[in-house]
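idk why but the lab printer keeps eating my pages so im just putting this in chat instead. protein + FE2/S2 (inorganic) cluster:
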Amino acid sequence: MSTPQRTWRQVAAKVRAHREYGAGFHWLDLEVPTGFAAPVAGQFVQLLLDFPSPVLLPRPMSVASASRRGGRLRIGFLYAPVGSGTRALAKLAVGDTVHVTGPLGRGYPLAERGTPVLVAGGRGVAPLLMAADVIAKSRRRCEFVFGARTASLLVGHAEARERLARNGSRLHVATDDGSRGFRGNVVQLLDKLAGKLEPPLVIHACGPHGMLAAVARWAMANGARAHLAMESVMACGTGVCRGCPLPRSNEARDRVLAEGAAAAALKGNPEWAMCCTDGPVFESRELDWERVE
Ligand SMILES: Cc1cc2nc3c(=O)[nH]c(=O)nc-3n(C[C@H](O)[C@H](O)[C@H](O)COP(=O)(O)OP(=O)(O)OC[C@H]3O[C@@H](n4cnc5c(N)ncnc54)[C@H](O)[C@@H]3O)c2cc1C
Ligand code: FES
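predcted complex ->
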């Protein structure tokens, strides 16, 4: 068995841009020092505020963009101030320091063969736009399904439309109330589009767990592969504290058991996957969707 490689680092990053993004969200751009590996879409980092901070533990945040300016790596985040940690984050000004651990976890396998279909709910749009740019660089086009309850919650809709048009991908919008695009949810829209697309479909999704569970079930029932970016409350983000469990499917549990005790120990537990190291992106068959909260 090969030894897993540690690719993450803990660095002090500088705030380079911070602005309101609409629909109650903020966009934060951090410049990280040389040596910080460029994250791939679907990976995350842990953000820890400088002392004094109202929270002790870092907060996990998906990487929404990664670009180089003058040889320096900048990573962007789309976040909502929902509690004490993210509200403190919202007070950061350009030039402030944030401690960043990353890149962490497994991202989307974007090279997988098939027609790429990206399914985003709410703020899930940002990491998937990053994925769409990567897919476009490999001269493939993706179908991008983007949904929210209502039009005003389609965060970053104008940017999504512009970027996807630029890279030759197609945007399909769904709102529950029909205020923009298809009336219904993203899975209903996916079901409607699927017959027009070249199989096999390879779905990459990011959004609330309820939406991801519905996408996973649709994929398993329709012979598609689906990679879902999961979340869990996290402490370490690096597999040490065992605090971010997600229930494995029977199939995944049996595979871990068959690999033997050493593999089971490395992977945490045959019954439970760790969101931070086994994920956060999981293929639909890896998890027990009946027990995902
Ligand atoms: C891998 C990963 C990627 C994430 N990416 C993003 C992102 O790109 N943008 C973003 O806005 N948020 C993201 N989150 C969620 C973000 O980490 C939480 O919102 C944040 O930790 C809340 O911290 P707080 O101190 O502001 O709120 P707290 O006071 O700690 O919590 C406020 C409320 O949010 C709930 N909460 C906390 N963490 C989560 C979570 N992970 N999932 C669901 N509910 C939670 C709490 O139960 C509570 O109800 C991500 C989480 C994970 C695990
Ligand atoms: S957050 Fe500590 S093991 Fe995942």
